[in-house]
Amino acid sequence: MIKTKLFFLFIFILFFNVSISFSSNSVYNNNTLKARELIYDFKFSQAEKLLEKDETPISFYLNTYSIFIQNLLISGEENQELFNNSFDKTVNIIDDLDDNDKNKKLLLSEIYLQSAIIKLMNKDFISGSIHFVKSYGFLEDQIIKFPNYKENKKLSGLYKIIAGITPDKGKKFLKMIGLEGDIISGYKELNQYLIYTQQKQNIYIEAYSLNLLIHTFLKENLDNEIFKFHLVNKEKNSVNSTVLFSNILKNYKFGESKDLQKNIILIKEKIDKKIPILYYFLGVSLTTDSKEKAKNNLLRFISTNKNQNFIKASYWQMARIAVLSNDNEEFEKYKELTKTEGGTFTAADKQALNEAEETSKPNKILLKARLLFDVKKYDEAYNLLKENPNNYKSNEEKAEYLYRLGRIEYMRENYKNAKMYFAKVLKNYSSTEKYFIPYSALELAYIYQKEKNIEKQKYYFKKALELNKSEYQNSIKQKANSGLKQL
């Protein structure tokens, strides 16, 4: 069973997992072409009306696909039931296509992968794993029968990346079904697929969004030289909801708060159904600018969200706001809600629970510096820390103080100072079992990567593995091993 910290991010990436060129009986007509455009613009109600007029295999597939996306964006028991019913009908219809149809196995692979995602999201791990195995089996059959078909590269690349990010324990399961691969080779296939789609504008938007999201979430593991493409007709397509949502996720990941807020305004003007996760993104992005607006958006997310994801993260963000406001009563309230409400499927929720279970309240200075850093306010974060060099009691706080300074200097490209701070963390606090100890070693490895110092890269990637005793062992191990493989 696949269960990694990045898995939930791949749920979003799989939005763009729809086949694009069809032969024989699996062809588009005017209704399905228009419906497909509407789905990628997140205008689901309009798409559904068009698909009701059509009873072709593609219309059934697109209806299932539309419901799948709504499960990811909106969730809820009603959408789950709709997906399950549509899935059964669609599988039967696609299964009746001629075996010589180049897209039959691809469609089945994608439908079963969508079903696996929905089941895993709802903790049906046995059925989810079974459907995942079936999905990969259909892809293997497809590659054997049509080895030169360029459409194969999208799913093939995705599966290799999934294999690459899966922890060692999960890799044993994947090897049993014949699935092996790594992030770089998978991403290269997706990049080839992107180049293939450049002459097909509507298709290119999807391929672009897929590659952008993977690059966003796996940036530390990818050679930036691989990621050399631009959006064709950018002005025309920059307001497409698929592209907007991809950029919102990128903005969120990299703390681009102003762009995130601008893109959320644009997408909310276009879509025909509310997307609760947008309120979460807004709440996080507004924390250092307006604590009250941030809290209101987080509460709105909690009240409209229909699944357990990002609930713990939302309550913990409000606990952080309470720390910044010196409100101990509010802090204790939201700390307890972080422990008791929501699930731990996402990395954000796991991190929230880990931090909420700490016995001590977060240090206000370190927390504020961290939040400022997260929205790229590097100078403010640096000045705050330098103005408060002695507000730290435990070795953990002292180590984090140096680590935060190192991270800021790294992002400001002051690599000499960054190396100094990270080295001090390792020299004085290596026995501290917190994530910023091995991460200091990783950051040093990345600096020496920029300086093309192979020996020191190797030393610090191995040092990160040696010191890897924190709550983020899988993530650190994966990043360090990925770095070593590229040497």
Description of the molecule:
- This protein is mostly helical and 487 residues long.
- Among the domains are: 7-233, Serine Threonine Protein Phosphatase 5, Tetratricopeptide repeat (Alpha Horseshoe); 380-487, Serine Threonine Protein Phosphatase 5, Tetratricopeptide repeat.
- Helix content is 70%, strand content 0%.
- The chain has 26 helices and no strands.
- The protein is globular, with a radius of gyration of 23 Å.
- The two termini are 30 Å apart.
- Residues 1-13 and 19-25 have low confidence and may be disordered.
Please report the distance between the alpha carbons of the first and last residues: 30 Å
Helix content: 55-70%
- What is the global morphology? globular
- On the 0 to 100 scale, the average pLDDT is 85
**For the record, what CATH class of the domain at 7-233 applies?**
Mainly Alpha
The oligomeric state is single chain
SSE string, helix = H, strand = E? HHHHHHHHHHHHHHHHHHHHHHHHHH
